Structures are given as structure tokens and as C-alpha cells.
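Thread: "does anyone have the structure for this chain?"

Original post by V.I.:
We have the sequence but no experimental structure in hand. Need at least a predicted one for the grant figures.
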Amino acid sequence: MSRFIKSSILFGILAVVVSSGTGCTGITMGPNLGILGFPMPVSPLLQKKMEDRFWERERYDRVEILGPIVAGGPTTALDEPSDDEVMRAMAKARPLEGNVPFLYEQQRNNVRIVKEKIADYIDPPRFIPLIGPAQLHHAHYKCTIYFEEVTNVGWPIPHRLIDEDAVEVIYIDHNHFHMVGNVDAGASSNY
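Reply from O.Q.:
Generated one for you, C-alpha cells below.
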């Protein structure tokens, strides 16, 4: 076969392949990722742990930087811990033990939370790296949690244990920074 015939056949095969791949197939399918293009199952437990880790980091693990404290303005902390924050702190301090459905389950029902502020003070101004001159505002809370703890045991002898007067005490600290306009207000700044 001559070179012209070989190239004509190759060109014809290439034209058939290209024309069969046109249309909406490339738009709806997207790029071909091979085996990674198929959905992978994710455990609901793993997904919940990742979502909880993100939620806590976003809501509770960061220290806020607020504006300066103005003369005559409030110097007390305005936000007490939320019920969600208290329950998450209790779950870290005292987690529910091995919940296996129909074998061993624990529940906390009729939850009532009492929050008391035990300390609220502001440190003197100082230089904080990456922030500048600032004051650290501390607020300490004592959270008493009253609840009914129900334990269902399903094996070897099914029974239910109810502790109606369960109490847990959690201490939560809220810290945030206040910017300081001019730390050395009394010093001479004329050069």
C-alpha cells in the first residue's frame, strides 16, 4: 500500500472518532478522571466528624479582635457561651459511651443549662505579634448542666437504667482581643 492510501485510511478513522465524540457528551460528562470519576462512598461517621471539626474551628477555636474600648463604654463581656458550645464541651469532657443500637445506648434527655459568669477582666495593653498593641479580655463561665441520663442495655438481659438527677459542671473561657489606639499616650511623640 502506498503512503497516500495509509494516510487516507488513518485520516478516515480519525474523522469517524472525532465526529462520534461531538455533541453534548463532552459538556455533560466533563473531563475523564478514570477511576476517580466514579463516586466514592464516605462513611456518615467520618463525614460528621469532619463537619464537627470544621464547625468548632469556625465558631469556637478562634480568638476575635475587636475595636478599642472607648471611655464610658461597656467593659464587660457581652456574649455568654451558647447552648451548643456548652453541650459540645460536655461531649468532649464526658462522651457518651459505646452507642451500639439495641445492645447498649445512652441518651441525655430533659437538658437544662445554667450559666454563671465567675470572672471578667481585661489585661493591660501589650504588643501582640501579628496584631499590634492590644488588650486581652478574659471572661470565665461556670456552666451547670442538669439532665436525665437514660441507659438502655439490650444484652444479655434487657433493662433500662435512668438517672434523673445527673449533673455536670463545665468551665468555659471566652477570650478576645481589644485593639489599643495609642499605648504610650503619656509619652512625648514630637521628633
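V.I.: this helps a lot. The mean pLDDT is 83.
O.Q.: and The chain is about 25% helix and 35% strand.
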